[in-house]
Each structure stands twice: as C-alpha cells, then as structure tokens.
C-alpha cells in the first residue's frame, strides 16, 4: 500500500510500505477513506517531536471502513464505517477508567503517527478498536466527520472545558487557525458575553468573525489594550492559547484577569517564559493538556444534527495520493489560506483546484 512516511526532520515521502495486519485480538484494520493533516504533523516534520522515529507513517485522524478485526473486538465488524480517533484507549488502566484516555498506560494514548504507524495511508491498524473507533451515521460526510477525530475534541476539551468557559465570560482565543476557530465555535455553546480572536493573518481574523468572534485583534497591534477596553480594564476571564509559540503563551498571561484561566492547547517546540514574578499574586489558573476524546460521542451527535460548523473549516481537498501537495498547501497556510485540508472522500474533484 501507499503511505506518507517520516524519514527525519524535513524528510518525508508518499511511498510503498507493507500492508498492516491484525497483531492483537483487540486490533482492527481500517481502509482509509478520508484523512486530514494536523499542525502536530508539521511539528513532527520540523523535528519538534523527537519520539517519532524515521520510518513512521504519519497521521492520527481518519474516516474509513473496517476490513478486519481481531477475535476480541465486539463493537465493530468488517463493513462498518468508522471514525478513527486520534487517541487510542486500552479501557483498563487507571487513567482510562477515569476517562483520561490521552494518558493511557496500557499501550494507548497518542500513538497513531507518533509511536506506531498512523492514518495517512491506504490502510491503518488501530489497536483497542472497541474504544478507539466510533461508528458513523451513514449520512455524515467523511470530510466533516474526520474533523471530529482530533480538532474539535481538542479545542473543546483542552480549550473550552479546561478553561471553564461560563455564561457572560470574556473569552480571548490567541490563534485563529483550525484549533482556534473550533475553540470559538465550541465556546459559543456556553453563551460567553464576547469572544475576541487574536492572530497575525487578516484572512484568519476574518474567518474568526465568520465562526463567531465578536472582536478581532492583530497580534502586532497591542491586543492587550483592546481586551482592557472591552472589559473596563479587568482582562479576560478565559484565554485559550492555540498557537504553540512562546510569544503567544506569554500574551495569554498578559491579557487574563486576576482569577482567570489560561488554557494552553498549542503544541510547543520551544520553552516559554513563565513570569511568576507577576503571576503569583493574581490567582491565575494555567492548564495544559493532551485531548482525551471523551467528548467525541457527544460531538458526533452534535455534528450529525448540524450544530457544529465542520464543513466551513475545510478549505482544500485532494485525492489521497496527492499527500505531498496537501502538506505543502497546509504548511504554507499564510500564502494559501488553508484552514483544514482533507484527503480522500467525495469532494476532492470539486475543491482541489483552490489549492493552487
């Protein structure tokens, strides 16, 4: 089969690899229909995630069809159309028993495209299939469903829920890329008074308005002052970091009010300064997190009911065999306007031309 293989920082290729097979009785093999590229994949290609060994197939999000299952799999069978979660859960360890699937100690957690071969391939082996894939409604489009493998659960759990967004809050989202836009969408479910989006790219700030931001600010033009003006000098109740660079994290700590929450979602490849000399007296709560995906069934129901703007995040689609081109478009988002790229599925003949 063909797959997108990491060969070291700055080196990757769409190439022939052996077909996956069931290794454990809890495994399933999925024929991939749709995949997407995550910002974390770009971090891997830059060398920011050293645990990923050369020779690993990348990707941790997919929609596809079950083609084979191990003898212990009970909830899905060959022919079922499923969402492959970015998090694998053994279901038995201390963390899984508490819903902390991202910290699974039984061989799960974030392993696809990280510690084992991932989803950016024609087929993928999924361990612990009973808890790690989700059957999909027949009517749900693959390009919409694949966004529920990672981006929406991550934004919702690590950003909105960890940040304790409440009715009447002022919420600032730093970074209006896909994670930030999904955070804006899901924060709106809790009726905040206002949502402010901060980014460097005018196109992404415009997208933030379309997804529900009440105000936007260029990160180079004193967003701290805008937040202060909107809140009578108090600052934001919740600030969601959705970039993953030191400057964005430090901005979050400057715009949050005393007693507020900073929810870090971004994947950081370099240290950020924690100004405890200023923060210690302000009762600030700072959270970090890897998504657990406990919210995926709820989000799937909401998406099926049309309550989540999944389709609007997909700006470019490609056939699966144009993986290298899709990475180029996604990696140059400032030039291409890419939010999410989806490969495979039904829509690539319509939208791929916009990648040029």
TrEMBL record:
Cofactor(s) demanded: Zn(2+)
Database matches in InterPro entries: ADH-like_C, ADH-like_N, ADH_Zn_CS, ER, GroES-like_sf, NAD(P)-bd_dom_sf
Gene3D superfamilies, per database record: Medium-chain alcohol dehydrogenases, catalytic domain, NAD(P)-binding Rossmann-like Domain
GO terms for MF: oxidoreductase activity; zinc ion binding
Domain Enoyl reductase (ER) residues, every copy: 8-343
Similarity annotation: Belongs to the zinc-containing alcohol dehydrogenase family.
Name listed for the protein in its UniProt record: Zinc-dependent alcohol dehydrogenase family protein
């Amino acid at each position: 089969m063909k797959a997108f293989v990491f060969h070291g920082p700055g080196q990757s290729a769409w190439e022939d690899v052996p077909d996956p097979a069931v290794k454990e009785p809890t495994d399933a093999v999925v024929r991939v229909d749709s995949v997407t590229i995550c910002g974390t994949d770009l971090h891997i290609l830059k060398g920011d995630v050293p645990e990923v060994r050369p020779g690993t197939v990348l990707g941790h999000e997919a929609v596809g069809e079950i083609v084979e299952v191990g003898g212990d799999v009970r909830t899905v069978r060959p022919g079922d159309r499923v969402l492959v979660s970015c998090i694998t859960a053994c279901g038995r360890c201390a963390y899984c028993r508490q819903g902390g699937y991202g910290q699974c100690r039984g061989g799960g957690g974030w392993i696809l495209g990280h510690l084992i071969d991932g989803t950016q391939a024609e087929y993928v082996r999924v361990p612990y299939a009973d808890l790690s894939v989700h059957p999909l409604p027949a009517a749900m489009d693959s390009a919409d469903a694949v966004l529920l493998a990672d981006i929406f659960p991550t934004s919702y759990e690590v950003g909105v829920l960890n940040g304790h967004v409440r009715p009447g809050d002022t919420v600032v989202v730093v970074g209006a890329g896909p994670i930030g836009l999904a955070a804006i969408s899901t924060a709106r479910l809790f009726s905040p008074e206002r949502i402010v989006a901060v980014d460097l790219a005018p196109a992404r700030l415009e997208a933030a308005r379309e997804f529900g931001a009440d105000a936007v600010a260029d990160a180079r033009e004193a967003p701290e002052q805008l937040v202060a003006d909107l809140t009578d000098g108090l600052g934001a109740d919740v600030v969601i970091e959705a970039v993953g660079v030191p400057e964005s994290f430090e901005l979050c700590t400057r715009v949050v009010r005393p007693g507020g929450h900073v929810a870090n979602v971004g994947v950081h490849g370099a240290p950020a300064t924690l100004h405890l000399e200023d923060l210690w007296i302000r009762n600030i709560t700072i959270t970090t997190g890897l998504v657990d995906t406990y919210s995926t069934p709820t989000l799937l129901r909401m998406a099926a009911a049309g309550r989540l703007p999944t389709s609007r995040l997909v700006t470019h689609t490609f056939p699966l065999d144009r993986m290298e081109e899709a990475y180029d478009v996604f990696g140059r988002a400032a030039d291409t306007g890419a939010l999410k790229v989806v490969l495979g599925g039904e829509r690539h003949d319509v939208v791929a031309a916009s990648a040029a």
